[in-house]
Write a structure and sequence with these properties.
A hairpin with a 6-residue loop joins strand 6 (255-264) and strand 7 (271-272). 35% of the residues are buried. The longest helix has 61 residues, at 2-62. The chain has a 5-stranded mixed β-sheet, sandwiched between helices. It is α/β, with parallel strands linked by helices and 395 residues long. Helices cover 39% and strands 17% of the residues. It has one domain: Spore Coat Polysaccharide Biosynthesis Protein SpsA, Chain A (Alpha-Beta Complex), CATH 3.90.550.10. The chain binds uridine-5'-diphosphate (UDP) and manganese (II) ion.
């Protein structure tokens, strides 16, 4: 009996030992092969993608790329943009005329020329906007457009679309400020083409290059409408674009409003509707579009409801002229281009105003492609951003 117990104990411990050994072997093997896996596949990621990714992120942390001003919600501003050149059979993308125009103006100037000064664009408003009715006694608007070497036809389309789609009793005037352009067709030829609107259009020519900030201030100082409406020089307004803006400013003079900015494709010049978005910015002080939550569009107004917006894109907005003066307009020490949109946004919110995007007002804007190396603009953007930081942000 005793020997049986001893034998069973011996066999028991032997089996236990074998199991432990097998278990150890199994765990060890797994561990090694896991280690092998880890050192094999990420080697690729590490050496290529991660390194690239880190480089891109690192670069973008050092210096915001000034030529990418608007980033859509689903675009990642740290990623390089993919080339957009699509080759189609019926367009000669290699002609020197196309290439020169694209490099100079950032969009397809051959198509722009063939479109001429007027065209119809699709009505991109939500159907619910059609039910809105606007009073006939809204305040008047001075439309202020500054330009520097703008492509002739894009500028004309901006002006003609405003004339064609704005009830004339709301349109006090259009004020054009030429920021020392040197293109020949923006001189006498432009005067000649605007002649038919004499009385409705003022054309001011800067004696020195002022940049868009001071140019807009020059325009504002010559305006006499109740509301200032700023546009870039490559826009096309849509149906009933102005009335929602004027109505909002009439209701609350401290309310600054932007239309929803539709996209005019730089290559095809097609007019595309934009989703309802709001303006925001990141800590590189780059402007970007941000998502609007679905619950914000749940009510009876749906996607036509005004959207509170921390920031504006800058080129297109309406502001009560007295309120603009009250908040001291722009920072006139800023140069050329850049960061003025965020500076004004902060100024509005911090001086008792509000900023909204009104989805029932639609204006198309050519999303230009800027050449990457523009040291003058980079310098201005950095300088302007630093001014903004010193004035409006804490430590
Ligand atoms: N602009 C100007 N002077 C300058 C730079 C720009 O008058 O020194 C004008 C430009 O022609 C355009 C507007 O300012 O009408 C906004 O510039 P842009 O469209 O290049 O800026 P973005 O659309 O990228 O904000
Ligand atoms: Mn623009």
């Amino acid at each position: 009996m005793r020997s049986i117990i001893i034998q069973s104990l011996l066999y028991g411990s032997l089996t236990f030992g074998i199991w432990i050994a097998l278990l150890y072997g199994f765990i060890h093997h797994n561990h090694v092969s896991n280690l092998e896996k880890k050192t094999q596949e990420p080697a690729l990621i590490w050496s290529l993608e991660k390194k690239l990714h880190r480089q891109v992120t690192h670069d973008s942390e050092q210096m915001p790329r000034p030529y990418v001003r608007f980033v859509r919600p689903d675009e990642d501003e740290t990623k390089e943009r993919k080339p957009v050149l699509k080759f189609s059979k019926d367009f000669n993308y290699s002609s020197s005329e196309f290439v020169d125009g694209f490099l100079k103006y950032g969009f397809n100037t051959i198509l722009s020329k063939s479109l001429g000064s007027e065209r119809e664009v699709p009505d991109t408003r939500d159907k619910r906007c059609f039910q809105n009715h606007y009073p006939t006694n809204l305040p008047t608007a001075s439309v202020v457009i500054c330009f520097h070497n703008e492509e002739f036809h894009a500028l004309l389309r901006t002006v003609f679309s405003v004339i064609n789609l704005t009830p004339h009793h709301f349109l006090e005037e259009i004020i054009l400020i030429d920021d020392l352009s040197d293109s020949d067709d923006l001189k006498d030829k432009l005067d000649y083409h605007l002649e038919i609107f004499r009385g409705k259009i003022k054309l001011i020519r800067n004696k020195k290059r002022e940049g868009l900030i001071r140019s807009r201030m020059v325009g504002a100082s010559r305006a006499s409408g109740d509301v200032l409406v700023f546009l870039d020089s490559h826009c096309e307004v849509n149906k009933v674009w102005l009335e929602p803006l004027l109505q909002a400013v009439a209701k609350d003079p401290k309310m600054v409003v932007c239309p929803l900015i539709d996209v005019i494709d730089s290559m095809t010049l097609e007019y595309w509707p934009s989703p309802v978005v709001r303006g925001a910015f990141n800590w590189h002080l780059q402007f970007k579009w941000d998502h609007v939550f679905s619950y914000e569009m749940d009510g009876p107004e749906g996607p036509t409801r005004p959207i509170r917006s921390p920031a504006m894109a800058g080129g297109i907005f309406a502001i009560n002229r007295h309120f603009f003066n009250e908040i001291r307009q722009y920072d006139k020490g800023m140069n050329l281009w850049g960061a003025e949109n965020l500076e004004l946004s902060l100024r509005i919110w911090m001086c008792g105003g509000q900023l909204f995007i009104l989805p029932c007002s639609r204006v198309g804007h050519v999303s230009k492609h800027r050449p990457p190396n523009q040291p003058e603009l980079t310098k201005a953007m950095t300088y302007n951003s630093l001014r903004l930081v010193h004035v409006w942000l804490d430590e």
